[in-house]
Amino acid sequence: MALLEISNIEKYYGSRSNITKAVDDISFSVENGEFTAIMGASGSGKTTLLNCISTIDRVTAGKIVLDGEDITRLKGRSLNKFRRDKLGFIFQDFNLLDTLTAYENIALALSIQKRPHDEIDKLVNEVAGQLGITEVLKKYPYQMSGGQKQRVASARAIVTSPKLVLADEPTGALDSKAAKMLLERFNYLNSDCGATIIMVTHDSFAASYASRVIFIKDGKIFNEISRGDDPRKQFFDKIINVVTLLGGDVSDAL
Fold this sequence. Notes:
By secondary structure, the chain is of the alpha/beta class.
């Protein structure tokens, strides 16, 4: 059974006289342990789609079922509990708290869940080792590089072992070396830790690390390709071919 099932979702913005259909009847599913990338030019609806999955935005129509629960119906405490226990978020601008150390930023989600201190310490050190950030645990965000901050943000997202990790342009603010390092860690989290990841990106190189890429154009699914047994370089070439077919602002998708 799929971990995530998205059925005929639509999202409109604006008033009756000026309606924008940001997401137009999109349906797809994501299996447990899958690494899926969503690509499209600016304004294609990819970030709105991610926001609907993350419950930041409410769908106008359709439903989203995660782990057997229709999340479009959740409100109040149930919604907060769902976000806290089932989702992990990784943002382009890191969203770390400046007054907390890396350790405290990562531990925060566990503290909110009221986990015991010993368990928090074990889990934070474990995930820091996995992501290669043990040496920055005592540092504050202003003392870290962009790549280190993004890996701390990634650690915070996965330390609670969420059902689904959502990443919005996670490499957008990183240089190429830091981006490659982060993407290799994503692969590790996916293949070795069993994390299910959905990553929105405009970058074909980043998308080539996924096992499947869904292309969005004008709020609709334009195409979908799976990596299968292809080497990453070959999958990257296939992604470029679809990006070229997408047309529009191709430079935004490369």
